[in-house]
């Protein structure tokens, strides 16, 4: 990859660090942005040629880059900043901008090394990152509401979708990423036994409980972070025990998804679906 067209921003609880053209630190080289490694398990056939594919998986995403610090009056300040920033205790997010395409990924620091053979040459540093979740995501924050109103104004972004009119119970959500992506559902009461159905896949999530007008139902379907919570007067409580046993914590498939909400009574104030497209690389 031509590093001249790549800008990086790393963020953690220590702050942020920029690398690239005309940035605080020069980017010398980078590897691993295209995709993580794949693993395919094949079972050999005993009686026939070849084998059968058992499963496929994407391994953790490894990204490595080399940066550069020029020798000047603030050289040592920058060196100390690097040592402090690349603390292996810090989990962070890497945002990559390549030719205008911008995506982010959560990372852990695997290693950090400085190479400075003499005082006359720029100091180089190499960083190896490992990403347990191998997918890059859109950079839009989940906390920022950019809505598409059915029958109203249309915005460029798809996060989140909001059902505006009382008669509108369905909406088409397009997953423009490379793989399935989980959702966050925000269901503002009142409602009786509210449910969200992905008509494209036939999967649904249903909560066997009545929501008052003061209740807000939150559902997160992300693997390793699945949640069902009800907020009342600013206090959230676990509501996983109210979930219908036939429910599925579904994800949006690649392409169009027809999403519908249902209740056994009462009309909800609003229903929102939040998500981020997921990508194999940048």
TrEMBL record:
Pfam family membership, one: SPP1_Dit
Domain Siphovirus-type tail component C-terminal: start-end pairs: 177-279
InterPro entries xrefs: Siphovirus-type_tail_C
Name of the protein described by the UniProt record: Phage tail protein
Organism this protein belongs to: Clostridium collagenovorans DSM 3089
Lineage of the organism: Bacteria, Bacillati, Bacillota, Clostridia, Eubacteriales
């Amino acid at each position: 990859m031509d590093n001249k067209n790549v800008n990086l921003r790393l963020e953690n609880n220590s702050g942020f660090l920029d690398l690239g053209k005309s940035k605080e630190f020069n980017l010398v080289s980078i590897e691993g942005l295209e995709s993580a490694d794949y693993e395919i398990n094949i079972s050999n056939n005993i009686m026939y040629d070849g084998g059968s594919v058992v499963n496929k998986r994407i391994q953790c995403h490894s990204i490595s880059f080399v940066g550069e610090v020029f020798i000047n009056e603030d050289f040592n300040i920058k060196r100390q900043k690097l040592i402090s920033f690349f603390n292996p205790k810090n989990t962070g997010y890497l945002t990559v901008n390549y030719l205008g395409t911008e995506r982010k990924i959560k990372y852990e620091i695997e290693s950090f090394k400085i190479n400075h053979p003499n005082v006359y040459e720029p100091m180089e540093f190499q960083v190896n990152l490992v990403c347990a979740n191998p997918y890059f995501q859109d950079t839009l924050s989940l906390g920022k509401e950019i809505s598409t109103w059915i029958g109203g104004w249309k915005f460029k972004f798809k996060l989140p979708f909001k059902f505006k009119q009382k008669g509108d119970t369905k909406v088409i959500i397009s997953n423009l990423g490379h793989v399935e992506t989980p959702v966050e559902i925000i269901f503002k009461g009142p409602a009786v036994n509210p449910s969200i159905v992905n008509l494209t896949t036939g999967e649904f999530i249903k909560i066997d409980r009545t929501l008052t007008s003061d209740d807000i139902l939150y559902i997160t379907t992300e693997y390793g972070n699945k949640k069902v919570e009800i907020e009342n007067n600013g206090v959230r409580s676990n509501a996983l025990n109210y979930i219908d046993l036939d429910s599925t914590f579904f994800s949006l498939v690649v392409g169009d998804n027809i999403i519908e909400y249902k209740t056994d009574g009462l009309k909800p104030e609003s229903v929102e679906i939040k998500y981020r497209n997921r990508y194999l690389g940048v």
